[in-house]
Design goal:
This protein has 728 residues and is of the alpha+beta class.
């Protein structure tokens, strides 16, 4: 029996359900309320209040802010029961049936992923996506769960606050965007921003508050003639200033390196018509542009061509009073509900419920693509695909026959080719955009008509992967690269085995793997075989070297690697200290930054910065392979950085040399270095054992071309087997 206090809570919840849902099974909601209350009766939250308050608030969010159906509300009430109480999934299944039990189970599995910190592992994203594919309501419950957790995050320990906020920005917010839940997305981002960037958040909020009256006064002045004209035309409409959320302002400030005064210069207004006739939006647009001068290139029609998440609206920018730019969005009330509540509102406005499953299926088709190459994709590739699918905006392009294709922003004709059919992508040799032949890496724009030119003799070029952005194109190109790599490696292995046989020398695969990694710096033995196949390895010289090593063992690979890494660490610290930091946006202010370990940039390298969450700016070399994927997936977080001016000073660099030892070798190498442009050698570290040597030279060079020429001269010295830039 529910006591008076909780009876009122139950009545309030049912009242919200009746107000927002098409139908409500009051008995179903009441039974779930009672089960959740009883199961959590001895539990408390970090705030000290009864734990039941949390599932109750989550259910209210589902019923009020993303209303779908009473099953979602019931699942929200029960979402923590299996995880936190003695009740089991079979109890929920017995009481409420398979559907609700499956949703609760899906929500519990997602929680388990995050609680175990598996979220850093690519396979965990698969679990997250798969649970969503099975029933979209799993994610609606999780959105509501995360929203209430972030609203009450202040009661948690600081480290847990940080973790929840990062997960919210990296996972939940982009998912909410894909589901069309704009209101939820904005609040999640602002709440996370408040935790991660509290000082900046408070300052932006303070400045926005201080200018609120000035802003409202201008909006009222702008809106007044529009309201008057729409009333004269017989339209009922709500017109109001559209708030900009703090996190988006913060992102722009970081990206552009500008203060708030220069970022927050665009006023925004939204017109929501009571009408349900889409054509009325175009009439309203005509009214607005008669009063204020429009900027043609800023017009976007998402009504004729909706976004994939069903978003519809007219976007335009006009010149308002005092010459200020004002963004205007025009939509009907049903469009506004879908824009704010996404898939949930789509359910509300769908008259023919028999086709609902098909409609909901289209919302998550993009997820299924991620599983196409499940057995072959590496964790890094999966993560890249995941983020590409979540974050990218869309463009709308057409086939020569006029068929519409929706692609991610920054797509190329090659992405378009793979979107039409895999075989067209395989054999694509060129493209026409709007009748003109263009390069395959041309960026497409909404409205382009694209025609693909193919040849049966064409095969994918490995460089294609650098500029395509769709998962489908990337996965098929990678598949071809893997197959070609496998064939090339087999060819190289065959050639290697033949040379071994000729020299009557034997080395097992494990020992060869260790050698090519430690001494030749190949990632694996397959990479070595490929170099053999391409004739880039002196096979006979290498077998001689291995034969000598067998007779005269040197320090083991682990010891050599440790010594090498120790020297490298000392070297990069010295190099960076000499350069004295990094400059961003043309200034050398002291900002938080770290050097990426994937490419170990040093002065002299061309570099870029990537804005991380909680770790400042990470400095990469411009040619780092990770930067290429970051530019495609999260280009807005790339910032231009530089080493401070060197004032004519040389840069410090390092080279690694190995080969056959002999009298006078060191003298010959130092002579080759020092006689080229009077190069100054800072230090030398040589390790010799028997007839072999291994060494590192640290020297001052003017630029990377200077370093390249020195390496070429050293390669010509008798006895040198390997010489390369030392990158740790």
């Amino acid at each position: 029996m529910v006591n008076t206090q909780y009876k009122k809570k139950l009545d309030d919840l049912i009242a919200v359900c009746k107000r927002n849902l098409r139908t409500v099974d009051e008995d179903l909601v009441s039974r779930a309320f009672t089960m959740s209350l009883e199961a959590h009766k001895h539990d408390l939250r970090a705030s000290g209040e009864p734990y039941f308050h949390h599932p109750y608030e989550v259910a209210l969010v589902v019923a009020k802010e993303i209303p779908l159906d009473d099953v979602s509300v019931v699942s929200a009430l029960l979402h923590d029961v299996v995880e936190d109480t003695k009740l089991e999934l079979k109890d929920i299944r017995a009481e409420f049936g398979e559907t609700i039990a499956d949703i609760v189970d899906g929500a519990t599995k997602i929680t388990d992923i995050f609680e175990s910190h598996e979220v850093t592992q690519a396979e965990s994203y698969r679990k997250l996506l798969l649970s969503m594919v099975n029933d979209i309501r799993v994610m609606l419950v999780k959105f509501a769960d995360r929203l209430h957790n972030m609203r009450t995050v202040d009661f948690l320990a600081p480290d847990k606050q940080q973790r929840l906020a990062r997960e919210t920005l990296e996972i939940y917010s982009p998912f909410a965007h894909r589901f069309g839940l704009a209101r939820i997305k904005w609040e999640l981002e602002d709440l996370a921003c408040r935790v991660l960037y509290r000082k900046e958040y408070d300052e932006i909020a303070r400045q926005l508050k201080s200018k609120r009256r000035e802003r409202e006064h201008y909006i009222n002045k702008f809106v007044a003639p529009i309201k008057k004209r729409l009333q004269e035309e017989g339209f009922a409409a709500e017109i109001e200033g559209r708030p900009k959320h703090i996190y988006s302002i913060y992102q722009k400030m970081v990206k552009r390196g500008k203060p708030l005064e220069e970022i927050y210069d665009l006023f925004a207004v939204r017109i929501v018509l009571e009408s349900q006739d889409n054509n009325d939006c175009f009439i309203a647009y005509g009214v607005v542009t008669e009063i204020y001068k429009p900027i043609p290139e800023r017009f976007k029609d998402y009504i004729s061509v909706p976004k994939k998440n069903a978003y519809q609206s007219i976007h335009t920018t006009v010149v308002g009073p005092e010459g200020k730019m004002v963004e205007v969005q025009i939509r009907t009330k049903p469009m506004h509900e879908i824009a704010e509540r996404g898939v949930a509102a789509h359910w509300m406005y769908k008259e023919n419920k028999s086709s609902l499953d098909k409609e909901l299926e289209s919302w998550i088709n993009w997820v299924r693509e991620i599983f196409e190459q499940k057995s072959e994709e590496t964790p890094r590739e999966l993560m890249e695909s995941f983020k590409l699918n979540l974050y990218q905006d869309e463009i709308y392009v057409f086939t020569p026959k006029g068929d519409l294709k929706i692609l991610p922003r920054n797509s190329t004709p090659l992405d378009f080719a793979f979107e039409i059919h895999t075989n067209i992508g395989w054999h694509c040799i060129g493209a026409k955009v709007n009748g003109r032949i263009v390069p395959l890496n041309t960026l497409l724009r909404s409205g382009d008509q694209v025609e693909i030119i193919t040849s049966k003799n064409q095969t994918p070029n490995p460089d294609w992967e650098q500029f395509v952005v769709t998962h489908k194109a990337k996965s098929h190109i990678r598949k071809w690269i893997r197959e070609e790599t496998r064939k090339k490696a087999e060819e190289g292995k065959e050639a290697w085995d033949k040379r071994l046989k000729k020299h009557k020398f034997h080395i097992n695969e494990d020992d060869l793997q260790k050698f090519v990694r430690a001494s030749l710096r190949y990632d694996n033995v397959q990479a070595f075989y490929i170099q053999v196949a391409e004739g880039k390895v002196d096979v006979d010289g290498m077998i001689d070297q291995l034969s000598v090593r067998e007779k005269h063992p040197v320090a083991d690979a682990a010891t050599r690697a440790e010594q090498s890494q120790s020297l490298f660490t000392k070297f990069i610290h010295t190099a960076r200290d000499i350069a004295s930091g990094i400059s961003i946006f043309g200034t050398s202010d002291n900002f938080m930054h770290q050097y990426a370990k994937c490419c170990n940039p040093i002065p002299g390298d061309e570099i870029v910065g990537f804005v991380t969450i909680g770790e400042g700016i990470k400095i990469h070399r411009k040619d780092c392979k990770n930067v290429i994927s970051l530019r495609m997936a999260e280009s807005e977080r790339i910032v231009e950085v530089n080493w401070p001016p060197a004032n004519g000073a040389d840069f410090i660099a390092a080279i690694h040399i190995s080969g056959k030892d002999r009298p006078g070798l060191l003298s010959d190498v130092t002579h080759a270095i020092s006689t080229y442009l009077n190069t100054n050698i800072r230090s030398v570290n040589m390790d010799s054992k028997g007839p072999l040597f291994d060494g590192q030279f640290i020297l001052f060079v003017k630029n990377t071309e200077h370093l390249t020429r020195i390496i070429e001269k050293i390669r010509k010295v008798n006895g040198i087997l390997e010489v390369e830039r030392f990158l740790g």
